[in-house]
Amino acid sequence: ADLRSGVRMLVKYPTLSVVAVLTLGLGIGLSTTVFCVVNGGLFKGLPFPDADRIVALVATNPSQNKDEIPISVQDLAIWQSRQTAFEKMGAYGFVAVNLSAEGERPERINGGQLTVQAFEALGVQPRLGRGLRDGDDRPGADPVILLGHELWRDRYNSSPAVVGQSIRANGVQRTVIGVMPERFAFPILHAA
Prior knowledge:
This protein is α+β, with helices and mostly antiparallel strands. Strands 3, 4, 5, 6, 7 and 8 form a six-stranded mixed sheet that branches. It has a two-stranded antiparallel ribbon with strand order 1-2. The longest helix has 31 residues, at 14-44. The protein is extended. The chain is built from five helices and eight strands, in the order ααββαββαββαββ.
C-alpha cells in the first residue's frame, strides 16, 4: 500500500519528483567526489616516493578573497633564489595538448608542464626512455615530451619505438624522450 501511495504521489507531482531525484543525485555525486579526494590525498597519500616531503606552494591575496593564486614566473625565480627550506623547487601547470603525427588527425589530451626541478622532486622514473634532465626546460632547448602510459598504450600500441620519434604537440615538433609508468599522472592524479 505504501509503495502504491508513493508511486501515485510521484505521478501526481512530477516537478517535485524530478527535483527530489536531481537533489539526491547531486548529493550522492558530490559526496562520492569529496570522499575520493580526501581518501586519495589524506589517507592514501600521493603516489610518489617520499610523498610526505612533497608540497605545493601557492600565493594568496586575502584583500581580494583569493586563497590560491598561481605563482608567476618572476615570483618563482625570486622564491627559488631566497628559499632555504626545500631541496628542489620547480613549477608545474595544467595544459591542453593538441597531439598529432605526420598524416594523422590531431587529438586533444590533458597534460601537464613541469620544470626539471618539479619532475625531479616527484622521484618517478619513466618506464621507457629517460626523464627530464638539466637544460630541457631552458629557453632554446630542443623541445621534448614525455608520454603517459595510457596514451602510449592507446595511441602508439605500446611500441617502444616511439621513444626518439618526433611528434607535434600544440604545433611544435617535439622528441619523445620517455614513457611514464602506468597510473602516473601529474598534476592530475588518478583516483585508483
